[in-house]
Every structure is written in structure tokens, then in C-alpha cells.
Amino acid sequence: MRNYNFLFIILLGITLTNCGGAKKGENTLFTFDESQFKEKYESQDAMELGILNANSKTVDSVVYYNNDVKIGSKKGLAKLVFNLKDQKLGYQNLKAVVYFEGENSEASTRIELVSNVIPKALKYTIVNTYSHDTASFTEGLEFYKDTLYESTGLKGASYLRKYNYKTGKIYKQTNLDPQYFGEGITILNGKIYQLTWEEKTGFIYNATTWKLEKTFTYDKDIEGWGMTNDGKYIYQTDKTEKIWRMDPATQKMIDYVNVYSGSFKIKSINELEWINDKIFTNVWQKDLIAVLDPKTGAVEGILDMSGLRKFITAAPTDFLNGIAYNPKTKTIFVTGKNWDKMFEIKVSE
Questions:
Q1: How many other CB atoms are there within 10 angstroms of residue 323's CB atom?
Q2: CA-based nearest residue to 145, from 162, 128, 127, 126
Q3: Range 167-173 average pLDDT
Q4: Residue 249 counted as domain residue
Q5: Does a structural domain hold residue 1?
Q6: Which residue in 121, 192, 298, 309 has the most C-beta neighbors within 10 A?
């Protein structure tokens, strides 16, 4: 494993502990041969899978699975070469079904697949500074037809609003019922999608009339955090290292990626924005933005936004949150929870 860039460890606040690696096999008859297992693997790696037969049983064959998907089989105790190239980052739950003497038994273990990408340090320049409503506990920020939309949190203070970011003039606003804590938004196919935090409830509005067309329940036992879309699918976060891909027509989760910066998983990813085929994401309680590959979850760049603190009046616990890309100006707008300023920036390496 290459040396990790400690700048990003500091920025991301990652604890230097083993957060995974091989997990000892669990079985009374057979176990995985873990003598050559590494603590962590990268996608270019391959590994040999084999079974220990401590009870000297006559083995007919072994079928191997990764995350419950069959990856191959071998006669007897022959080893299987498992290439990790096409596996998603994160834990790989390995299982072997051993067939012996007319019976079968299972063995299991776990390895961790991490990113082989070392993130680049990105920089930004401030193009403009605008006022931001300090009563806005920002959770979602997005441009739609040249107009800025914002979703806020806190029970009793959550709303969906569109407004003129230059003047602060509110064009339209709808307040959530006090039982809901508003979270991320995204706008796709003429619909506004809005999440709530722990209530496991989402709302779909008509983007023109703002009529509430549907209330839906999450089909996974997750929290609602950030949202964005790629023009076809919706992506959302849930406070963990996962980014879920959702079918906007059914609101069903299709799959997910795990976000890794080098060897370390990045938990508590929050607000999302799709920019030029990359996902920009806030990390909760950090004044930074991570830029990642949505296909793999690998962080490719880090924006240290802590320098914005000198321009705002905000408590240390008023965290950076809110990323919106304006395709007309090709600039990015960022703000934070209860911040008095919003910044229009350009990003470069």
C-alpha cells in the first residue's frame, strides 16, 4: 500500500485506525486460508481463495461468492484466483460453499477494497460574495432554469424556497409541516424532490406549480441527507460513506457506491452536486468539499474551504453545507448552515 498523503487525513479528520481488513472465517468444519491475505486491497489486485480442511474431509468441490454473487468454483481444494478490478470499494464479504461426502458447509470471511487514487489538492477563487439568510439552516442548494433553490432543516423551520441570490428576493416558498426536518433537494424532469432527515419521508413537487404530487417512504432503512442527479438518476446520501442511486420514477434504490479517499472511507458525506460528471460533496462538520468519481466512489480531489471562515459571521458549529453549480456562469455557489454569506467560486487544480 502506497504512503497516504497526510494533508487529506488532516482535512478529512480521519482516525488512523484499522477500519476493516480481513475478518476471521467462521465455520466449524472449513475456514478460508487467510495466511496470504492483506489488510487492504486495491482494484488492480488479485487474490487466491482457498479453503482449510482441518478435519480432513473428502471435498468434492467449492463454490465461491463475493457479496452473494457467484465468482467461480473449483474441484476439490484447488484455489481460485479472484480479480478485484470490477468490485465496488468497501467490504467484500466472501463465502465458500464446500461440498463434501454428500453434505455441504459454508465458510465466510471479509476483506476491504480501498481506492488506489491519491486525491489532488484543488484551489478556488472567489468570483462574487452575496448575502445569505442567517435563518436558513441550509441542507440543499441547486440551480434550476437560472434560479437558485434552497432547502433548509430544523423542525418548525424547514422550508423549500426559490429566490434571487443577488438581491435575496423570494419568488416562492413552501414550509414543511413542523414534524419534518428538511434535507437535500434535486430537480429532475420537471419535478422537485426533497428529503427529510429521520422521518424517512420524501416529497415530490411539480417544479412549475409547486403542487405536492407525491409523498414517498424510503425503501431502505436509512436517513435522508443530500441529493443530486445526473439527468437520469437521483443520488442521495444517508450519513454513512454510501451514495445511493435512485430511480426517480419509483423512488427505489438501485445500488450504491462507498466513498473512499485513498485507504480510508469517508463517512457523513452530506450535500451533493453533480458537476461535469463528478460529484462534489460536503463532509459533515468539515469545511471542505470532496470531489469524487460517481462510478467508483473514489475521491479524486479535495477543496479546503476553511479560508471562507474569515469572511463570515457564524458559529464554529455552523458547518459548511450547500453546493450549487450554475451552468450558465459555469461557477459554483457555496454557503453554510446559518451563514450570512454565500460565495460564487471557480475551482482549479
A1: 28
A2: 162
A3: 96
A4: yes
A5: no
A6: 192
CB 191 within 8 A of CB 247: no
Long-range contacts of 254-257 (CB under 8 A, 24+ apart): 257/88, 257/89, 257/294, 257/295, 257/296, 257/297
Q: Which residue among 81, 113, 145 closes a domain?
A: 113
DSSP string covering 291-341, please? EE-TTT-BEEEEEE-GGGGGG----TTS-EEEEEEETTTTEEEEEETT-SE
Residue 159 included in any domain: yes
Q: Which three cell numbers stand for residue 89?
A: 470499494
Taking only the tens place, the pLDDT of each residue in 108-124 is: 999 999 999 999 999 99
Burial 138-149 (b: 16+ CB within 10 A, else e): bbbbbbbeeebb
pLDDT given for residue 26 in this prediction: 52
In this structure, the answer to whether residues 97 and 236 fall within a common structural domain is no
pLDDT reported for residue 13: 56
The C-alpha atoms of residue 25 and residue 247 are separated, in whole angstroms, by 36
Which strands form 59-66's sheet, in the order they lie side by side?
69-75, 59-66, 90-100, 103-113
pLDDT tier, 14 (very low <50, low <70, confident <90, very high otherwise): low
How many CB atoms neighbour CB 211 within 10 A? Answer: 10
Residue 73: all three cell numbers together: 468454483
Identify the pLDDT of residue 349.
83
Q: Which amino acid is at 2?
A: R
Torsion of the alpha carbons at 340, 133, 268 and 230, rounded to the nearest 10 = -120
